[in-house]
Amino acid sequence: xxxxxxxxxxxxxxxxxxxxxxxxxxxxxxxxxxxxxxxxxxxxxxxxxxxxxxxxxxxxxxxxxxxxxxxxxxxxxxxxxxxxxxxxxxxxxxxxxxxxxxxxxxxxxxxxxxxxxxxxxxxxxxxxxxxxxxxxxxxxxxxxxxxxxxxxxxxxxxxxxxxxxxxxxxxxxxxxxxxxxxxxxxx
Length: 187
Fold this sequence. Notes:
Blueprint: H1 3-8, H2 15-23, E1 26-30, E2 35-37, E3 46-51, E4 53-60, E5 63-71, E6 75-76, H3 79-84, E7 91-94, E8 98-103, H4 105-114, H5 116-142, H6 145-155, H7 159-162, H8 165-172, H9 176-186
Antiparallel strand pairs: 1-8, 2-7, 3-6, 3-8, 4-5, 4-7
Helix pairs in contact: 4-5
C-alpha cells in the first residue's frame, strides 16, 4: 500500500502537507518474527504498514494474549511510549516479512506545530483509533465467541489465511480448541 494511501485513510491532506509528512519518513524491510515493539521498552517511533501483518500481545498470568492485529494500512505505535515516554505493556510481532514506513515522534511533533493540516490529521487519526478500540472492546464484552468469530470472517476473512489459528483464537478471547469447534459448527 502506498504511503499516500495510508496517510489519507483517516483524513485527507493537502498535497503540500502530504509531501512534508512523506519526506520525514523512511522505508524499512523486516523479517517475519521481528519485534517492532517489546514489553517494558520505550518506543517513540510510529510505523505504518506498507506490506505485512502484525500482532500485538501481552502476557496475563504467563499466557500470551493477542489484543490487536494490523495489516496493510495500519499503524504500529506504543501509546505509552508516544504519549508518556514510558515503557510499553505490549509486544508487537511481525507475522510476515514486512515493509514499513517509519516516522520519528520528534519530527511529527514539529510538523504538528508548523502545519495545521498535519495537526488535524493527527487529531483525526487519534479519534478514529479510539473509536475502533471502543468498538472492539464492546464486541469482546458483549458478543459470544461464535459471534466474534463470525464478525471476523465477515469483516476481515483474509486474516484467517495469514495468521496461525492460535493467534486468531487469542485475539477472539478463546482457546484454540473452542475456535476449532466454532469453525466446524459454522461449516
